[in-house]
Design brief:
The chain has 384 residues and is α+β, with helices and mostly antiparallel strands. The protein has one domain. The protein is 44% helix and 12% strand. It has a three-stranded antiparallel sheet with strand order 1-3-2, with helices on one face. It is globular.
Length: 384
Amino acid sequence: MGSPSPPVESESDYIIRKFVWHSSDVAHVEAKIFELCKGDFGIPKHHHSAPVKSSNGSIPISNAIFLPSPGEPLEDYHWDITGKSGPPPLPDYRELWVHETNSNADGLSRARTPLELCMTVGHAMLGWLSMMHKGFLHRDVGMPGVFHLFDPIRMVPFVPGDFGQVLGQPEAWKGDQLLQDQVERLQKAVAGLGITDICHGVIQPSDMTVDMKDYYTSGGKAHRPDYYDYMSSGLLRAVRLSEPYLHSPVDDLESFYYTMQWAGVNNDGSDSGRHETDHLDALRAKLSDSADNRFQATLFVHRIRPENQEDIQRFGKFLAKLAPVFKEWYPSILALTKSWRTVKPGVDGADDVSRYYIRHGLVFAYRGVADYLKIVHKHRESLG
């Protein structure tokens, strides 16, 4: 997207305060990511993170007063009615934290044009990659954490990360031709869309974000994000069946797809406002329903024809213009998912297994973002 007519500032006049009930064992992770990614393209400028304290400023606010103190017998607080429950679960101690960022952020559904939405998501994807450069996997991509900037902000241009740092092998990655090829693909895609230092979209870290080295060393586990609408199909299935699941960057890329699809279907930022028809209401309901209904709705979106007046009347110009992007993007996500299933570490030792997954995760992440940006570039003229 070209530079807007108003001057582009390096920071916004707005402050966003995000309050989160963090699990005590990960309470500092989000603040750490903000600090490590400070100034990176696609990451909001961070001002402050701290635990929220009581009115006299002495006691952190937590749920600990309602739970057993550390060292107390958990059996005293657990009523095993059936006699088959097993050992009591460990208490989930949580602390209230506040994170302050400098951003004129708005919801993705407030994008003014289909191209603006596509570029917003692309810029947030580059922020997501920046987190991976620092060794973190987001794991909770969705509407609450991916933002459209209603006034773009000037940031340091995106550059590939120091893979030697995240892989723990300072020079080895430079001989990794597969990773190098995907880095070059992404750089060409970024240049092709004219992405420089003007940012239209950002992504915030989440309390689900993990250090990849620790996560893959421990074997990972399925988790329960707050919003099921944007979860990858594989993770959604694992959570519902209570099965173990190793979250990958491909899951996050699929979440980007569902996030942008939701924003396109629910757009209310274009000049014509929110499009309201019974057909569109039914589509919105399906997207927020079961996994099967979401899949059926996704296939239906792919069949919307941007040149067909009946489809435009039913679903609006905004979604009709986006349909070809979704139709082409979705199969690329499926191809990534299929390829990721073949990723099996043929190495021994926790550190080597972790490094194996991180290296392949970077390859797939760069490939997925490059695929998306190339699709946007292809349809750019019709999205404006």
